[in-house]
C-alpha cells in the first residue's frame, strides 16, 4: 500500500497577518459583509510573469469575482485594490475556469 503524505509549508505570523490584512481591506472596499474571501500568494513560472502574485477571489450574492495583483501579499496596499465601483467588472462568468481560484 502506498501512503501519500501532504506537507504544507508553515508560513510566518507576518505572512498570515498580511493575508488577513488584505482580506479585510477587500471586505471593506467592496462592502462584502460576511462573504467568503480567498487571498492566496502563488508562484508563477510563466516567462514574463512576476515570480509571486497575490490572487484574490470573493463571492457575492451575484457571483464569484476575482483579480490578481502582481506582487507578494506582504507588499499589497489598499491603493493596489480596484475601486469599489469596479466590482461588477471583476465578476466571473459561470462557465469560466481558472487554475488560481
Compact overview of the structure:
By secondary structure, this protein is of the alpha+beta class. It has one helix at 13-29, and strands at residues 37-43, 52-59, 64-69.
Report what the structure shows.
The model is unreliable at 1-7 (pLDDT under 50). This protein has a three-stranded antiparallel sheet with strand order 1-2-3, covered by helices on one side. A hairpin with an 8-residue loop joins strand 1 (37-43) and strand 2 (52-59). By secondary structure, the protein is of the alpha+beta class. The protein contains one helix and three strands; from the N terminus they run H-E-E-E. The longest helix is centred in the N-terminal third of the chain and has 17 residues, at 13-29.
| Basic shape | globular
How are strands sequenced across the largest beta sheet? 1-2-3
Give me the oligomer status. Answer: single chain
Number of strands: 3
Write the element-wise H/E pattern from the N-terminal end onward. HEEE
Strand content: 15-25%
Compute the average pLDDT.
Answer: 86
Structural class: alpha+beta
Helix content estimate = 10-25%
Model regions low in confidence, pLDDT < 50 over at least 5 residues: 1-7
Please count the helical segments.
Answer: 1
User: What is the end-to-end distance?
Assistant: 33 Å
CA-atom Rg in angstroms: 15 Å
The biggest beta sheet reads: 3 strands, antiparallel
Amino acid at each position: 500500500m502506498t501512503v501519500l503524505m501532504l506537507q504544507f509549508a508553515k508560513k510566518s505570523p507576518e505572512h498570515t497577518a498580511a493575508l488577513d490584512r488584505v482580506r479585510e481591506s477587500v471586505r471593506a472596499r467592496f462592502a462584502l459583509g460576511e462573504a467568503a474571501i480567498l487571498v492566496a500568494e502563488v508562484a508563477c513560472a510563466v516567462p514574463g510573469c512576476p515570480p509571486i502574485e497575490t490572487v484574490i477571489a470573493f463571492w457575492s450574492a451575484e457571483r464569484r469575482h476575482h483579480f490578481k495583483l502582481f506582487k507578494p501579499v506582504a507588499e499589497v496596499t489598499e491603493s493596489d485594490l480596484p475601486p469599489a465601483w469596479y466590482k461588477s467588472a471583476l465578476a466571473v462568468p459561470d462557465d469560466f475556469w481558472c487554475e488560481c481560484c
